[in-house]
Amino acid sequence: MNMMTLWHITGWGFAALALAALLVGFSKTAVSGANTVSLAIFAAVLPAKASTGVLLPILIAGDVLAVLTYRRHAHWPTLWRLFPAVAAGVVLGTLFLVWADDGVVRTSIGAILLLMAGVTVWRRRTGDATDEPGAVATRSGRIKARSYGVLGGFTTMVANAGGPVMSLYLLSAGFRKLGFLGTSAFFFLIVNVAKVPFSAGLGLIDGRSLLLDLALVAFVVPGALLGKWAVHRIDQRLFEQLVIAATVVGALQLLLR
């Protein structure tokens, strides 16, 4: 229990983190963006700024499992369009973390979660997308990719909350379930691995955080297997409603903490 002593975590706190890690695995293979709930849990149990560094290796573990599951369905032209803008957003997010203290980061995470919940609700009310994945090659498609890419890079660096941004983009670009999951799997694996040096440089990833990751990463695997089983059976509409509600509650808890 030395790890729990280092982080001053209670048994209930560790149980909440374990549940959040399981949800990361589930979200990576079933409903991308659902791990915003995990983000809220991590930021509530741990110091908000430190929580982003602890969560990152957990997310990478989930990304690896998602890539192994959906690697044949990725749409690489979309990925190449996104990466330069995402890199710019990650740099902006890194500069923000250098400046911001823990209170500002906690408030920012809460605000980002509320924004992402609002975006998700807006996307649901606008109906199904009419574009096709190949539309990223058009001028409007390139502008959309750059806009979403910068926002996604910033939110994923500051709060590991790029999932809802990219979910909205991929859905608006006309991706169906398997193409959506395959493309987002490679996207987040590459982006999250690229974030590791930035997070380590900021002191967010160190021996203490990795010790906690080692205790939590085992919970990602059953979550991913559950997601793989559920992806063709899940009532997506109901689940998204639950995710939005949980995200809003988590965001308000951070803002009012």
TrEMBL record:
- Where does it primarily localize? membrane
Keywords, ordered alphabetically: Cell membrane, Membrane, Transmembrane, Transmembrane helix, Transport
Q: Where is the signal peptide?
A: none
Any transmembrane segments, and where? 82-99, 105-122, 148-172, 178-198, 210-232, 238-256
The superkingdom of the source organism is: Bacteria
What cellular component GO annotations does this protein have? Answer: plasma membrane
**Where in this chain does the entry annotate a coiled-coil region?**
none
Cell compartments where the protein resides: Cell membrane
Q: How does it sit in the membrane?
A: Multi-pass membrane protein
Per the record, the similarity remark reads: Belongs to the 4-toluene sulfonate uptake permease (TSUP) (TC 2.A.102) family.
Q: What is this protein called?
A: Probable membrane transporter protein
Organism of this sequence: Streptomyces humidus
Q: Upper lineage ranks? A: Bacteria, Bacillati, Actinomycetota, Actinomycetes, Kitasatosporales
